[in-house]
Design a protein that fits this description.
Layout (H helix, E strand, L loop, with lengths): L2 E9 L2 E9 L5 E5 L13 H5 L3 E5 L17 H15 L4 E6 L1 H12 L4 E7 L8 H13 L1 H4 L10 E2 L2 H8 L8 H11 E4 L2 E4 L15 H10 L4 E6 L9 H5 L5 E6 L6 H4 L1 H14 L8
Parallel strand pairs: 3-4, 3-5, 5-6, 6-10, 10-11
Antiparallel strand pairs: 1-2, 2-4, 7-9, 8-9
Helix pairs in contact: 3-8, 6-7
């Protein structure tokens, strides 16, 4: 029988929200959500995933129901620390990973750091074009030139207030053009919190300022090459985030299946939830990672 455990765990002095779907499957799946999203993002895949896995998920710092940063600036290393803390606290020795967007990038790096622990890796996008040193220099300079706006406590942290969930949904509609109104409302409800004055985004506005440095491209490629598990990477054919060096990226994965999903953009798990379930099912069955239910 399925049970959902929810609560908070501590990492680096912050309370981070988590949920564990205990489905009695003895087959653990760790989910990673994307930038400015939350771990509820896979809500349309939960019914399928719960038939085959115990599901583990949490909201990153500054996302969902987790704490916002109290001082300093956000950095990708914080997220890796929180991931390791969550895994050490809750997950078994070996598990599967499924990540979307930023979560796909996090999952791929973690799978390369600890390849012996990963049973399979699925990335729904999550890879960026390789940029020149000059581009990265300009990005760092732009970040430094606005440092006073990048730190906790600045005016840039003001969070917009909406009068109703319907207003939130109307704001999300251009971002999710393929979704019907009921699904847009689902997203609006899990991405916002009720306040005395209306509804606000759960995510910290400061996170949108970005990181001063990217993860080392050379180390990243070494990590990809270290992954030993079956790997599935899916891109939406209509995505606006297709990396220019896609073939170079894919060449670093040893056990890779690559798919471009028809009639889907970057948020394919919302655009084509049923098709994604079909692709996941085929991948997991091909590698004997799940079995037909009687």
């Amino acid at each position: 029988m399925s049970e959902i455990e929810s609560g908070f765990f501590q990492s680096g002095g912050y309370n981070l929200a988590y949920k564990i779907h205990r489905n009695g499957k003895d087959n653990a799946l760790l989910l990673f959500h994307g930038f400015q999203d939350a771990s509820d993002t896979f809500l349309y895949q939960f019914p399928f995933l719960s038939q085959h896995f115990d599901i583990y998920r949490f909201d990153y710092r500054g996302h969902g129901d987790s704490d916002w940063l109290r001082e300093g600036n956000y950095h990708f290393i914080q997220t890796l620390v929180d991931v390791k803390t969550f895994i050490s606290s809750f997950l078994p020795e070996k598990f599967h990973i499924l990540g979307h967007s930023m979560g796909g990038g996090i999952g791929a790096r973690f799978a390369g750091i600890y390849p012996e622990r990963i049973k399979s890796l699925v990335c729904l996008e999550g890879f960026m074009s390789l940029q020149s040193p000059e581009f990265e220099k300009k990005r760092l300079k732009a970040w430094l030139d606005t440092i006073e706006n990048n730190e906790v406590g600045t005016k840039d942290r003001k969070n917009k207030t909406f009068s109703s969930i319907d207003e939130v949904a109307s704001r999300l509609k251009p971002v999710y053009p393929k979704l019907d109104s009921s699904k847009i409302r689902d997203l609006a409800e899990y991405l916002t919190k009720k306040t005395d004055h209306g509804y606000q985004w759960k995510n910290d506005p400061l996170y949108k300022r970005g990181f001063p440095f990217v993860f080392s491209p050379f180390l990243t490629r070494h990590l990809w090459e270290s992954i030993d598990s079956p790997t599935l990477i899916i891109y939406g054919k209509e995505t606006h985030l297709m990396p220019e060096n896609r073939e170079e990226i894919l060449s670093h994965f040893k056990h890779l299946e690559y798919i471009e999903m028809e009639n889907a953009g970057h948020n394919m798990h919302h655009d084509q939830p049923e098709l994604l379930v079909e692709l996941l099912s085929a991948f997991y069955k091909k590698h004997d990672l799940i079995f037909n239910l009687s």
